[in-house]
Every structure is written in C-alpha cells, then in structure tokens.
Design brief:
alpha/beta, eight-stranded mixed beta sheet, 7 helices
C-alpha cells in the first residue's frame, strides 16, 4: 500500500509560494514521475495543480510542454543511476535528475522552472555537479535558491533540500537570491525576511543574501555561491 502523502513543511511551502508569486506569477503546476520509487512525495497545496508525468526518462519532454502553460515545479527522482560501465567510469551521470534537468529547456523568455533536489547539486564541487550547473547555465539564469532541512515528509531530517528558481537565460544575468530556511518557530519573521530579500538588488538579510552572477566559468562553480559553513 502506498505511503500516505503528507504536506511539505508549512514554512517551506509558504516561502515557495512567495517565490512563485514574486518571480513567476500564475497557476503553479507540479510535475513528478509516475514511479514513486526513491521519489520525494508530498501533498500539494490546494492551489497547485498536479501533473504526473511519464517515466523519469521522459520528464524533460513533459516539462517543456507544461512550461508553455506557466510556472512549473519539477520534482525529479533522486535515485542513483547505475548506467553503463563506460558511463560509470566517466562519472558522467550518477543521479537520475542529472539527465532530467540537463535536458530541460525554456520555451520562451518568460519561462520559470523550479526544481526540487538535494542541495548537493548547488553546493558540491564535484565534477558531476559542476558540469550539470554549467549545462543549466547555458539555458537558465538562477533567480533564487531556497535551502532547508526537514521540509519534505519522508526525507530524513538531516538532508538539506534545495528549491532552485530558474528563469530563461537573459542577455544580462539578474542577481541570485540565496536563502537558508531556519529551523525556528518564528515563521512570520522568516517570511518577512524572505520578502525583503526578494525585493533587494544587493546586500543581505538575516537568513539570506544577494549574489551577483557572472557567466559561469568552465567548472560551473559560480552557479553555487555558498559561503563556507553557511548551511551548517
């Protein structure tokens, strides 16, 4: 029997909703794969639309179709990929979401795609993660990244989850907003802090900061500007 779905952390859900309202107004669609194996699952807010896609290998195609209708939250599978022996030796793809995200493309200048992944995609200095960031940067600007722990019901409380807001690449890169969701009961003050950050073109707030984005260098690390120990 499938595990009963539970809602996201209420604070994380509200912050996601605020991010969508500021960066991509419109009805939000959530796309997941048909298989729930190693798939982050949660109950959707009532105002969001569910669009369960095909097998994970076809999620990028479904994402492109849905982006034509408005902002999209994509929840790709997190499982490791076994792949072929040659692929494993090259360390090219270790997670299913590598292929899914690497194939996603904006459909117009207003496209906004939000992806829910482990934080390591945005913080790791591994060649695999850096290459995926560089691939994404060829087509997308990173508008904002929310980091939080204990935000998805069935994911272990210690796992840092990232929600990255990606907008269709522009000639001039917009500033990137980085926000760490604290484990606190002061939800209203955290929401106000995030609201202030979303309005800023520079500087920092209590839980976040604004990073100017240059075009990423060859290893893609400029897509993940995280100060040492900032997520600890």
């Amino acid at each position: 029997m499938p595990e009963e779905r539970k809602p996201l952390s209420p604070l994380f859900e509200r912050l996601l909703t605020m991010g969508f309202a500021h960066l991509a107004p419109g009805a939000v669609t959530v796309l997941t794969t048909t298989s729930e194996e190693d798939q982050p699952c949660f109950e959707l807010p009532s105002s969001w639309r569910a669009a369960q896609g095909a097998p994970w290998q076809e999620l990028s195609v479904s994402a492109t179709r849905l982006l034509a209708q408005g902002p999209l939250l994509l929840v790709p599978p997190w499982q490791r990929q076994t792949g072929t022996e040659g692929r494993a030796k090259r360390n090219a793809t270790l997670f299913a979401y590598d292929e899914v995200l690497g194939a996603c493309r904006p459909v117009n200048a207003d496209s906004v795609l939000v992806v829910l992944t482990p934080a390591e995609l945005w913080t790791s200095e591994s060649p695999r993660a850096a290459q995926l960031r560089a691939t994404l940067a060829e087509h997308w600007d990173t508008l904002a990244v929310l980091y939080g722990t204990g935000v998805i019901p069935q994911i272990h409380q210690s796992v840092i989850v990232a929600a990255a807001f990606l907008g269709a690449r522009q000639a001039s890169r917009p500033p990137m907003k980085i926000f760490r969701v604290p484990q606190t009961d002061e939800g209203i003050s955290v929401e106000k802090d995030f609201e202030v950050l979303l309005q800023r073109g520079g500087g920092s707030t209590r839980y976040g900061y604004v990073a100017s984005q240059g075009r990423p260098d060859s290893d893609g690390n400029r897509n993940a500007l995280i100060p040492p120990n900032w997520l600890e």
